User: Fold this.
Amino acid sequence: MVNFLEKASRKFARRVGYSILDIFYPPHCYLCGKGLATHRYICESCLDSFERITDPICEKCGKPAPESGGVCSECAKGDREFFLARSFGLYRPGKGLAEAIAGLKYEGEKALSKDLAPLLDKGKTGELLEDVDALTFVPLSRKKLRDRKFNQAELLARKVSQITEISLVQTLVKLEATRPQAELSREERLENVRGSFDYDETIDHDRVLLIDDVFTTGSTVDECSRVLKDAGAERVYVATLARSYPG
Ligand SMILES: [Zn+2]
Ligand SMILES: [Zn+2]
Assistant:
């Protein structure tokens, strides 16, 4: 991890411009600090170290499972609103992928999305991209967007749309600032998100892929999926960078 001073200087240098940044601070990997030859933000070996999700998984929500061919106990209840959900990797606090997502989300390191978004086009999430007509993302409330300046899920979705040339639709709206999901139990999470999203335009696409950074209990993406179906989508697929597990 690069030290605080250097990080602050890099932030300043980024505002000044990349040509000056290159002279005084050649690009470094956000995670390990190793020098990078190109305008990358995470080096190849850190990207390779992210723990990918592979089979066996729950066939519905993509959670790692003891064996192939079934669904997990949550999905067995049969009330998931999304059609399929998949995540690229495992979310383990303190590990590379979780650190990179935290940097993107909480430290305003917007540029990290450029190296993280292409991961969605690989592995389990990449398989979903072959099956959808449009992309969308989990929105932030207006207040949160003001505080954070950008929506990390939107950055990821825009980049994936550029890579794959699948069109991006923006219709979901977060209605009110709810309590941060991280503080709540599963039951409270479900209560907290119910009715907190709406849409502002109908959707002309049948199979829509909803993009977010982390899948925890799935309550947020499930509520968004319900609203997207109200808006006209026939099936909603979900792709997240990481899956918190167990969870
Ligand atoms: Zn690195
Ligand atoms: Zn499941």
Q: What stands out?
A: Residues 51-244 form a domain with the Rossmann fold fold (CATH 3.40.50).
